[in-house]
């Protein structure tokens, strides 16, 4: 199944102009600093804000599967019994329970995206498919969306980690205007430590996309303890130059922990507590490294 967690209107950080960004659920990576943990798992799930729970027990009373029990005045969910029917969500007086992940038929999704056509036209924007990892969804489903948007002459951007078989990219390439392509860490061992997999497939796909003539924005989430250093940035520059990759932009994205508060709601542990962002001076130094090597359209943020 292809599940969507959010359709974000009026987005200005996911490509050119004003965009509507669609966040898909499921990702093959496990970045320790992930700020959208609700998009990591491929299946639908229930999130619940324990801090705001008043312990009224309404959720336990209405659950038809008896999946919720009250322990020390707080509800406890047995996920093996829960079928995500949504009753606890509907009856919670505090509105702190939410089922994450919704199916959208292509026609229904495109109809929703078309509502912002005026903003796309006025700003040079369009639609961005993000995640999670949109390219890990059904190729047929993504391709159908891409073809429908192309028919409506709506610009399509795909935000990707690159960790999927290349034939998925090959299928959608004729319909995509820009790829926002994450290049997180050049050292394979560090990549595996902080991202969960090595980076070989990601870099191979980047080279193939560039050779195919794709318009690419390289995006580097920049974390001081991981890749926020001259060594990693110089290695990235060297790779791009060796493979004759000419990105339309290079975006250096300073680390932030704004998604850390989401983890307890999903019974997940945030493992990025010791991570920090480089200083503004350090970030500007990284920008200069790229610009001095000919990547003039390098900026902080994007």
Please provide a written account of the structure:
- This protein has 302 residues and is of the alpha/beta class.
- 30% of the residues lie in helices and 22% in strands.
- It is built from 10 helices and 13 strands.
- Strands 7-1-2-8-9-10-11-12-13 form a 9-stranded mixed β-sheet.
- Strand 8, helix 5 and strand 9 form a beta-alpha-beta unit.
- The longest helix is centred in the middle third of the chain and has 13 residues.
- The protein starts with a strand and ends with a strand.
- The mean pLDDT is 96.
Number of helices: 10
Using only C-alpha atoms, the radius of gyration works out to 21 Å
Order of helices and strands: EEEHEEHEEHHEHEHEHHEHEHE
- What's the arrangement of strands in the largest beta sheet? 7-1-2-8-9-10-11-12-13
User: Outline, from the CA principal axes?
Assistant: globular
Instruction: Give the strand tally.
Output: 13
Q: Ranges with pLDDT <50 over ≥5 residues?
A: none
What is the structural class? alpha/beta
Distance between the termini: 31 Å
Largest beta sheet, briefly? 9 strands, mixed
Average pLDDT number = 96
Query: What percentage of amino acids are in beta strands?
Result: 15-25%
Helix content: 25-40%
């Amino acid at each position: 199944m292809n599940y969507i967690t959010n359709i974000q209107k009026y987005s200005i950080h996911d490509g050119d102009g004003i965009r509507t960004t669609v966040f898909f659920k499921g990702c093959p990576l496990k970045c320790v600093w992930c700020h959208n943990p609700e998009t990591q798992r491929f299946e639908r799930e229930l999130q619940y804000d324990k801090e705001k729970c008043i312990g009224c027990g309404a959720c336990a009373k209405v659950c038809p599967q008896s999946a919720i029990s009250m322990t020390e005045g707080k509800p406890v969910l047995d996920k093996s019994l829960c079928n995500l029917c949504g009753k606890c969500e509907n009856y919670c007086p505090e509105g702190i329970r939410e089922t994450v992940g919704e199916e959208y038929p292509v026609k229904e999704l495109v109809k929703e995206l078309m509502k912002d056509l005026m903003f796309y036209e006025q700003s040079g924007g369009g639609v961005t498919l993000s995640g999670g990892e949109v390219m890990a969804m059904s190729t047929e489903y993504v391709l159908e969306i891409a073809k429908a948007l192309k028919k409506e002459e709506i610009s399509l951007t795909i935000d990707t980690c690159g960790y999927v078989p290349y034939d998925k990219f090959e299928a959608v390439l004729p319909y995509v205007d820009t790829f926002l392509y994450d290049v997180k860490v050049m050292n394979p061992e560090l990549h595996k430590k902080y991202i969960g997999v090595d980076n070989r497939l990601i870099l191979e796909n980047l080279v193939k996309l560039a050779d195919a003539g794709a318009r690419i924005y390289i995006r580097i989430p920049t974390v001081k303890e991981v890749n926020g250093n001259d060594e990693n940035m110089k290695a990235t520059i060297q790779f791009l130059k060796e493979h004759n990759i000419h990105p339309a932009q290079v975006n250096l994205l300073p680390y932030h922990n704004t998604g850390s508060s989401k983890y307890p709601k999903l019974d997940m542990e945030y493992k990025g507590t010791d991570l920090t962002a480089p200083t503004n001076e350090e970030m500007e130094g990284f920008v200069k490294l790229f610009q001095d090597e000919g990547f003039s359209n390098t900026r902080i943020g994007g």
